[in-house]
Amino acid sequence: MTALVIAEHDNASLKGSTLHTITAAAQCGGDVHVLIAGHNADAAVQAVAKTAGVTKVLVADGAQFADGLAENVAAQALALAAGYSHILAPATAFGKNILPRVAAKLDVAQISEITKVVSADTFERPFYAGNAIATVQSSDATKVITVRTTAFDLPADGGSAAVENVSAVAESGKSSFVSREIATSARPELTAAKVVVSGGRGLGSEESFKILEPLADKLGAAMGASRAAVDAGYVPNDWQVGQTGKVVAPDLYIAVGISGAIQHLAGMKDSKVIVAINKDAEAPIFSVADYGIVGDLFEVVPALVKELG
Ligand SMILES: Cc1cc2nc3c(=O)[nH]c(=O)nc-3n(C[C@H](O)[C@H](O)[C@H](O)COP(=O)(O)OP(=O)(O)OC[C@H]3O[C@@H](n4cnc5c(N)ncnc54)[C@H](O)[C@@H]3O)c2cc1C
């Protein structure tokens, strides 16, 4: 029994999502191999090779993998699939673009967003926006799985996996890379941050949302938002936390002017400590908060910043 993890990387570095996925793969019970389909991706290969629990790194190198086009990466995974009992990828935009193609071609049911490995064929996954957990058992020969990365710890360093070059599949010709706009921010990446400061409709405007910046600066936090704040144009789309946004589980999540709709809770309720600031004492966010401040955010946030020195 061997699991294949499809690595998410940008050639120069490995994404943390891959590491969490390796932990889930190891829990399936067999060896763990990792596929790096990339171009001149030595740095990513080395990062995987030294991850504890990985027994082999398979490297498919070619210009057709340089930009991670799903058609090419999925074809590469399919070329290797016969030797594997499990094929896993993170439940990120990357993995969600690749694994359904793999599952369809293998004619198996994808098991999406697992949060726990119960045994080699049985997994837990949330549904109804995280309000219920399904235990699913698969009788398919190959388990094709996306992994909710926040549910699995990072593996340790200290591995020394063998690195093996595999023959690269040809360019599919079905898609081509045009351009990429990369958002640059001095703040940590939202899904990897240890502290997240999130704002909601209660902030009132794009201008007022900036009141959260000094708080995020003091705490070295990433900034997030509710969908209402995103839809109102206060902040960019990729800040959205929730069912249809990003799922985060930082050590500390501060929700400011967010009511706590179930779709928002689905993206943050597994945070270790939740602080809510809201002027409505009945707001549902307080039902998941460890600490709550009932008050006007325009008074509470500056006072908090002052207190933090
Ligand atoms: C299919 C579907 C998917 C969805 N996906 C998501 C998702 O991924 N993420 C998400 O967030 N939502 C999502 N939603 C939307 C969700 O249902 C809520 O509408 C949204 O989360 C509300 O955002 P909010 O809490 O910022 O706004 P509101 O619900 O309007 O809450 C604003 C809060 O601010 C407080 N407030 C106002 N002024 C102040 C002040 N001065 N000081 C302190 N507090 C103040 C109010 O008391 C209120 O509680 C989804 C909805 C659907 C139907």
From TrEMBL:
Cofactor annotation remark: Binds 1 FAD per dimer.
For whether the record's keyword set contains Electron transport, the answer is yes
Q: Which residues form the Electron transfer flavoprotein alpha/beta-subunit N-terminal domain?
A: 3-181
Q: Which keywords does the record carry?
A: Electron transport, FAD, Flavoprotein, Transport
Single Gene Ontology BP annotation: fatty acid beta-oxidation using acyl-CoA dehydrogenase
Domain of life, source organism: Bacteria
Q: Does the keyword Electron transport apply?
A: yes
Q: Which Pfam families would you find in this protein's record?
A: ETF, ETF_alpha
Q: Which residues bind FAD?
A: 201, 226-227, 240-244, 257-264, 278
- Summarize the protein's role: The electron transfer flavoprotein serves as a specific electron acceptor for other dehydrogenases. It transfers the electrons to the main respiratory chain via ETF-ubiquinone oxidoreductase (ETF dehydrogenase).
Q: Which family does it belong to?
A: Belongs to the ETF alpha-subunit/FixB family.
Q: What is this protein called?
A: Electron transfer flavoprotein subunit alpha
Origin species: Oxalicibacterium faecigallinarum
Q: Which gene encodes it?
A: etfA
